[in-house]
Request: fold
Amino acid sequence: MIHMYCTECPNECYLSVEGNQENLEIRGHKCPNGLKFAREEVTCPKRVLTSTVFFRDEDNEGLLPVRTDRPVPLSRQEELMGIINQICVQHSVKRGDVIVRGIGGLEADLIASASI
Reply:
């Protein structure tokens, strides 16, 4: 049995999950979001990936904070970090600008978390 807190809404339900991927028994949810959260957390957990990339322009160089615009599978995060570690931004960007569209072939974009 797996126990977890749902983070999908303010209820923060304490969930219990039993079974296998095809037949899950989920208890403790107070709304449909808890069912979806538990099912995804057990079968394909996802998180927003945050990191930094190098930037260099005429006047400055340093690190630019970035993140994916939506959660990506935990199983792909090491691969995505390999891509992120090779990026060097050479122009000014605003917070929210897309740095890499569809990173790693996923629907998630890598976006700037700050302006430089």
In short: The chain has a mean pLDDT of 94.
